[in-house]
Structures are given as C-alpha cells and as structure tokens.
Structures
1.
Amino acid sequence: MASNHTNLQSTGPDGKQLLVQHTTTDSPILPAANLEHLQRIDPSGELVRWVVVQTEEEAKYRRQENTRVNRYIFTERIAGIALGALVAIVGLGLATYLAISGHDAVAGVIGGATLLGIVSVLVTRRKDAAPESEKSSTSTKKKK
C-alpha cells in the first residue's frame, strides 16, 4: 500500500514556528493516532465506530473487486488458449484437406509457417508486457 508523507516547517523572524504534516495513503485503515483524535472529538465513540464500519465495508469491496479482476484475467487467458487451439485445429484440418486434394504447396504454407505464427501469437503472450495500471503503480512505488 502506497503512502505519501509531507512535512513542512517554517520559522518566522519573530521566532514563531509553523509545522504542517500531511499523510496520504491508499490503505482503508486509519492510523491509531487518527482514531484516538476522533475519540477526543466525539467521546461517545459513535464517530470511531462509524469509521471502523466504513473501513470494514471498504476492505470488503476491495477484496470483491480484486476477486472480480482476477476472474476476468483468468477468463481472458483461458479464452485466448481456447481460440488458439481452435485456430490450430481448423488450420491443420484445412491443410490436411488441401494436401489430400493435391494442393501440396498451399497445404504446406497453411500448415507450416502461417499456422505456427498465428498459434504462437494467440497462445504464447509476451511475458514482459505488463498492463498499464501495473506499470504506473510500479513507477509510483519506486519514487518513494
């Protein structure tokens, strides 16, 4: 989980100091100090309970979203493999038919290099090609 901390301190000519601290995080959990501060604002504890309930709901949503994205990625990959197999089977069937029909050169081209190229593109995907969201999150993490 990425977080960004900013601290700014300034001292004026009269000796007065100004200190500003700011933290941004994508974590659904508030730091304990923030919860303690909320408890001082609302001694009944309703505000803290509300924040905890909202945090639980946010965490549940994030887990569901993560599961959904993983399911779509899995489905996409299986579909790619299935389509690659279908293209290979149809191509080999066509090449066999053409070879039996006396078109050996055409059958060799379809069954050879062309079919091999199509299947390799559909089945073996580039391993180094990361989705755009992964590239941006990786670059953000490196800047810390």
2.
Amino acid sequence: MRLLAFLLILVLVGCAHANVAPMVGLDEVELDSFDLEQMELWFRIRNVIGEARADDVEQCNVIGVGAKPCGGPSTYLAYSETNVQFDTLNALVVDYNVLSEERNSQIGVDSDCRFMSPPEPSLVDGRCVWRDPNEEVIRRLNGFDE
C-alpha cells in the first residue's frame, strides 16, 4: 500500500511539473524533493482526516493549513472531532506549515496578503465542510467546490 501511495505521489509530481515554467534561482532537484515531502505530508493529513463523517455540526472543526507569505494559513480543512486524533493531525499540519513557510521564503512567493477569516464548520450530507465567510462558498473536504 505504501508503494502504491509513493508511486501515486511520483506520478502527480511528474504531472504537476510537466506544464510549469522553471523557477529562477531554485535548483529543480531541490524543488522536486521539497514538493515530494510537502505532498507526502498533505496526503498524510488528508488520510488522518478521512471522510470527516459526523452526526452533528458540533462534532466538526477546521484547521489552518499552509502558510501565506504575509502570514496566516493558505487554506483550511474541515475535520470531524469524533474521527480524528487531534494531536496527530496538529503535528502533521505544523510540519506542513513549516515546509510551506520555508518554501515561500526560498522561492520568493508573492501573496495577495488578503486576510482569511477562519471559516465556520458546517455539516453537509453527514460530512464536515467549511463555509468561507469571505466568499460564501462551501468547500468539501475532498477539494471540490459545491
């Protein structure tokens, strides 16, 4: 199973770099290993969260993931408190956020510096999701907008 996950990561990274112009000032090998590490953490975070199933919205919560260059998380993920060991999830998110900050400073990522208010958790079809108060969009945990 781990081999399959690793191969999937390699394929996704390969596809992600296929149509991207090279970044000036950053060794491509360094970028690939950095992206692989961050992608592995992303998949581990998503695996810990799972489907975020809940019976009541009170069981739902959100966690900030990633790092905008101006500060604050780059996105949020919804999770079910009944199905997640928070200490495990938080440790993975902290590691992911540190990598995001390092990458931002290393490649000089720009940002719109727009403040993202922490979203409110919601429950849709028995799954925890979040509603962005800035845009009034419901995002499902699997990354698709509704």
